């Protein structure tokens, strides 16, 4: 079965590059250019993994994650934050918020791919307490 990745990022070039890269790696890719659309796609398709930008205009990444964790249908989807913020505090906060992992831009695509494969290998589904 083909794993599905949902990419949520309001920067068009990043969205297109990640979509193309993961499709070439054999994944089914869904993409959303804002948090609201991302949540809709997550609820409709229940992807294996979500890669979500932290800083977006309409709804930031932590809000996207909070809403997904609050829903029984989407609370077990593995979640990776992607951000340009590099302070250690941000990665700690990402994990405290319930993300499975965190990657800082700019990053190497193969590092993100390893992160995704590791989450899939570990079972891809998780159990979190809803907020």
Structural topology:
Layout: E1 4-8, H1 12-24, E2 28-32, H2 35-45, E3 49-53, H3 61-69, E4 78-83, H4 88-97, E5 101-104, H5 109-121
Parallel strand pairs: 1-2, 1-3, 3-4, 4-5
Structural description of this entry:
With 131 residues, the protein is α/β, with parallel strands linked by helices. The chain has a single domain (4-121), classed as Response regulator (Rossmann fold), CATH 3.40.50.2300. The chain contains five helices and five strands. The chain has helices at residues 12-24, 35-45, 61-69, 88-97, 109-121, and strands spanning 4-8, 28-32, 49-53, 78-83, 101-104. Helix 3 (61-69) links the parallel strand 3 (49-53) and strand 4 (78-83). Helix 2 runs parallel beside helix 3. The longest helix has 13 residues, at 12-24. The protein is globular, with a radius of gyration of 13 Å. Residues 127-131 have low confidence and may be disordered.
Strand content: 15-25%
Instruction: Please report the number of helical segments.
Output: 5
CATH superfamily: Response regulator
Order of helices and strands: EHEHEHEHEH
| Main β-sheet, spatial strand arrangement | 2-1-3-4-5
The CATH topology turns out to be Rossmann fold
Number of domains: 1
Could you give the count of β-strands? 5
Structural class: alpha/beta
Share of helical residues? 40-55%
Characterize the quaternary organization of these chains.
single chain
Largest sheet entry: 5 strands, parallel
Head-to-tail CA distance between termini: 32 Å
CATH class: Alpha Beta
């Amino acid at each position: 079965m083909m794993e599905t990745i949902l990419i949520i990022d309001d920067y068009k070039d990043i969205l297109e590059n990640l979509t193309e890269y993961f499709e070439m790696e054999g994944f089914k890719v869904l993409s959303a250019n804002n948090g609201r659309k991302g949540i809709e796609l997550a609820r409709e398709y229940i992807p294996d993994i979500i890669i979500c930008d932290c800083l977006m205009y309409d709804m930031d990444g932590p809000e996207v994650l909070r809403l997904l964790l609050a829903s029984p249908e989407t609370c077990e989807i593995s979640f990776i934050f992607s951000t340009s913020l590099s302070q250690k505090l941000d990665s700690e906060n990402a994990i405290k918020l319930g993300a499975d992992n965190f990657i800082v831009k700019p990053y190497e695509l193969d590092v993100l791919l390893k992160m995704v494969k590791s989450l899939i290998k570990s079972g891809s589904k998780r159990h979190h307490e809803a907020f």
